[in-house]
Amino acid sequence: MFDTNVPASCPAHAPKDHPKIPEAKVGILISNLGTPDNTDYWSMRRYLGQFLSDRRVIDYSPWIWQPLLQLIILSKRPFTSGAAYRSIWNEEADESPLMTITKQQHAAITETMTARYGDSVMVDYCMRYGNPSTKSKVRAMIAAGCTKILFVPLYPHYAGATSATANDEFFRVLMSEKWQPATRTIAPYFEHPLYIEALAQSVERAYAAADKKPDILVCSYHGVPERYLREGDPYHCQCQKTTRLLKDRLGWGDTAITTTFQSKFGPEEWLKPYTVKEVARLAEEDGKTNIAVIAPAFSSDCIETLEEINEEIKESFEEGGGEHFTYIPCLNDDAAHIAALSAVIEDNLKGWLD
After folding, report:
1. ∠ at Cα 122 (119, 124), nearest 5°?
2. Which of 6, 113, 223, 296 is the residue whose CA sits 20 to 30 A from 52?
3. Beta partners for 182?
4. Span 193-328: which CATH code?
5. 36 phi and psi, to 5 degrees?
6. Distance between CA atoms of 93 and 106, rounded to whole angstroms?
């Protein structure tokens, strides 16, 4: 059904009694990971249940995984995860920081795209898990007359557990549409010059503001099981290249920057070195007691950066003898980041809008 609140007209060359339809637009739908609606037990359980039931995230046999998830993990974890979210919750807006930042990114991208393309585009945002759902936003775009949709997962690097599952959900929604719009998805943008430039500028600002220059910059990426690399997932290689490109842009030597991986979950081995252990080792064994940490794989600050890095990983570093810990925020709605995302979007709109 079309949205009756948007401008509509009879198609050219159609009979006069043809139903009016909305003017054709191009939709730009940015997608982030997701967030619980609140920090209470049931909100957390719904969110975690959806997230941890995704076979792209946890690919163990459902016959083994689902009883463990439903009977044990989802009985306990909502309490600990709720406490972690409460420690970073945006109380004023009553939402998670990821939601606040995604709204800010959406507003900035909308302003840029509207200035570039006028009323020809409609920009919106959705979440892979939680609200607003991908389904609700795709249907709203179709109802508003979007005959083409560019889907933009906010992940610089490709991974099955991030970009691929966001795309999966987008395609699942389209399967139920009678009249599907033409669609495109963006490629990973981890090596885009403007993305690297935005990262470099954020590092330079942080180092310029520091009382003492950090001994090393730790690039902490969200981890995945090592098995995924052997099975063909390119994520590990793309992360390593991001660190190298950032190092080259900053003009640094190899010893000034390193790559680590965080957020290990479950019994199997994940990509190494683990950030939580490596920061302690840097202090204990290498004597690097003044470090900075950046999270290039995250487009928005979230539970993994504000709570895990700034609390758990910082604590591990200090217990290892570390003295000065600097967390460099995600790019969020920084102007250079919005410029990079806008350039990626414009590249992918070519042929549709020029």
Report:
1. 150
2. 296
3. 148
4. 3.40.50.1400
5. -65, 155
6. 16
Pick from 127, 146, 114, 101: which is nearest to 30 by CA? 127
Task: Return the structure tokens found at 97.
Answer: 């920081």
**Look-up of token digits 């758990």:** 312
* Predicted pLDDT of residue 97: 97
Per-residue pLDDT reduced to its tens digit, 45-78: 999 999 999 999 999 999 999 999 999 999 999 9
Grouping H, G, I as helix, E, B as strand and the rest as coil, residue 19 is: coil
Collapsing DSSP states into helix, strand and coil, what is residue 298? coil
* Bond into 15 cis (ω within 30): no
Q: Is the per-residue pLDDT at 244 higher than 80?
A: yes
Question: How many C-beta atoms lie closer than 10 Å to residue 351's C-beta?
Answer: 8
Instruction: Tell me the pTM.
Output: 0.92
Q: DSSP alpha helices (H): ranges in the chain?
A: 41-52, 62-68, 74-86, 97-117, 134-143, 165-175, 193-209, 226-230, 235-250, 275-284, 314-319, 335-349
Q: What is the DSSP letter of 185?
A: E
The model's confidence at residue 266, banded by pLDDT at 50, 70 and 90, is confident
Residue pair 90/96 in contact by the 8 Å Cβ criterion: yes
Query: H helices of 134-233, where?
Result: 134-143, 165-175, 193-209, 226-230
Which residue type does 232 have?
G
**Residue 271 dihedral angles phi and psi, to the nearest 5°:** -55, 140
